[in-house]
Amino acid sequence: MVSKGSTLERSAEAVPVQKDPDVLAAAARMSGEDLCSIADLSSGEVRAILKLGRDIKANPREYRHALDAKQMVLMFEKASLRTRLAFETGMNTMGGNAIFVDQTSSPLGERETIADVARNVERWVDVIVLRTYAHDTIVEMAANSRVPVVNALSDFEHPCQALADFMTLEEHFGTTTGLNFTYVGDGNNVCHSLMLTGAQLGANITVATPRGYSPDIEIVTIAREMADRNKCELKLTQDPQAAVEGADVVYTDVCVSMGYEHESTKRAPIFRPFQVNEELMKKAGQRAVFMHCLPARRNEEVTDAVIDSPQSIVFDQAENRLHAQKALLLLLLGGLANVGSFNC
User: Fold this and answer.
1) Catalytic residue among 131, 172, 192, 323
2) Residue 52 belongs to a domain with what CATH number?
3) Rounded CA gap, 218 and 72, in Å?
4) Which of 135, 172, 321, 323 is catalytic?
5) 253 an active-site residue?
6) Residue 61 CA to chain centroid, in angstroms?
């Protein structure tokens, strides 16, 4: 929790979630829309998802019939534990039904065009959740479907992960405004979504990557524009030691993502100086927490001593995947209209 001398102040919600202007505006705007990228959301909509996620977590019974008779299909080209189970559990506990289609041996677009898949699937379900290698698959599916399409993960972004991560940070610190957030490792899809989400919420983001592994310049440009609007900073560096100085949060991910296994031997020595270990964590702030999206390759990008330490909140992150994704589904599917407390 926040120390008494902290410069971050615990933020109290002035109104109940049912009357919160961010939540009500998001419910009106997001229903029926797609989520391909965090950049699709306004700052208010990101805040709304997190506020709603906290209320769902605290009062799950209030939402148990919110998505009655709604159908969700999950089409995954990559193996999954947290993403799949959090979406399936979330949909089922709100009264809907989840259907899983394993695409690991038959990638989308191989048997028939993505457009044809979209035009078929939209006739049967209310929302399509995709976990793919190519971000273009997400975009094409969304362009050809009349039901919402959600990017559960692509090679370019991991928006659902980032939403859960910042929900976890708000629980821990009370607010993310002014938080010093450092990401160490590969400038990959997780890094992209964290930059965008942090910038939307007023966190100061520092990204430390090896030369040649920086985040995509297009995402950096968008995130910096967001940061300027929200009076925070985004910095890039190749020095992990300097990056974690005084950080409130130290975050890392695997240095070899799915689809890049052939680069393991090449990447290992490049990323060794970016390992999050006890010595690196000592450079962070006294109350710093450690985060990882999981699965972790223990004693590669992070040591056992760090991931199993009291500073680690990795399993809080994993738990909040459920609540953040439930909030997202509710907003995209207009589910708040079925929640009694929203209709008083």
Assistant:
1) 131
2) 3.40.50.1370
3) 31
4) 321
5) yes
6) 24
Q: What is the pTM of this model?
A: 0.94
The shares of helix, strand and coil residues in the chain, as percent rounded to the nearest 5, are 45, 15, 40
Count of the separate structural domains present in the chain: 2
1 domain-assigned: no
In a domain, 80, yes or no: yes
Asked if 218 and 287 sit in the same domain, the reply is yes
Among 103, 135, 161, 255, the active-site one is 161
Summarize pLDDT for 231-241 with one digit per residue, the tens: 999 999 999 99
Note whether 216 and 144 are same-domain residues.
no
Reply yes or no on whether 84 is catalytic: no
Among 22, 155, 253, 255, which one carries the catalytic annotation? 253
Which one from 158, 172, 192, 323 is the annotated catalytic residue? 158
Q: Are residues 305 and 168 in the same domain?
A: yes
**51-108 confidence digits (pLDDT tens):** 999 999 999 999 999 999 999 999 999 999 999 999 999 999 999 999 999 999 999 9
Residue of 298, 303, 300 lying closest to 281 (CA atoms): 303
* List 34, 186, 293, 323, catalytic entry: 293
- For residue 71, give its domain range: 17-158+320-336
Q: Is 241 a catalytic residue?
A: no
In a 10 Å sphere around its CB, with 0-12 CB exposed, 13-18 middle and 19+ buried, how is residue 144 labelled? middle
**Residue 186 annotated among the catalytic residues of the structure:** no
Q: Are 179 and 104 found together in one domain?
A: no
Greatest CA separation found in the chain? 60
H runs (alpha helix) in the chain: 21-30, 43-58, 82-93, 114-121, 135-144, 159-173, 189-200, 217-229, 240-243, 264-271, 278-282, 304-307, 314-332
